[in-house]
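Co-fold these.
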Amino acid sequence: EAGVVQSPRYKIIEKKQPVAFWCNPISGHNTLYWYLQNLGQGPELLIRYENEEAVDDSQLPKDRFSAERLKGVDSTLKIQPAELGDSAVYLCASSSYRQGADTGELFFGEGSRLTVL
Amino acid sequence: AQKITQTQPGMFVQEKEAVTLDCTYDTSDPSYGLFWYKQPSSGEMIFLIYQGSYDQQNATEGRYSLNFQKARKSANLVISASQLGDSAMYFCAMSPKTGGFKTIFGAGTRLFVKA
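Predicted complex below.
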């Protein structure tokens, strides 16, 4: 079974440029998460999808960040324009949510490391 | 509000010894799950162990066990017989079971295993 796939693994851009990250979750996982992880810190939730619906995006800076999961499968996270403080690792994770049947264990991709110069 | 607290930024342990990584949490949800994840220097997040809030027994997975004290809202990870490969960041996480799985993480503890 294929794991969570993210691309690109690394991205270096200049500030004010746009950037996009792509995530393909594990097949059959209806819940998809984007997390931001700063160096030496824990992941912080940006947005959570249940199928194609964004059910929790309260932590997403909507002035510059956007995300979509159009067909309830893969997802794209975009930053436009990028700022110096956006340098971090962007982690995608998926889980299978069936009430009473699943633990909520997250399966993570390898992450996309963004450096903004 | 839900919160995970890990008070140990760094821990050292001698190879083959046991070590306990602390985690306390706060939630108003009656049903929730507690998790520990390992993040080696390579960056991938690896699931280690899960404890449900209604589970009567502490969870164990090989050398990992979770010391769950519900009244104290603590979920400490115990690693027995530490190995050099255990050197990594360890994150405690919690997910309520109502309204879907919104998983939040603590700040992490960096474990160093000494030969």
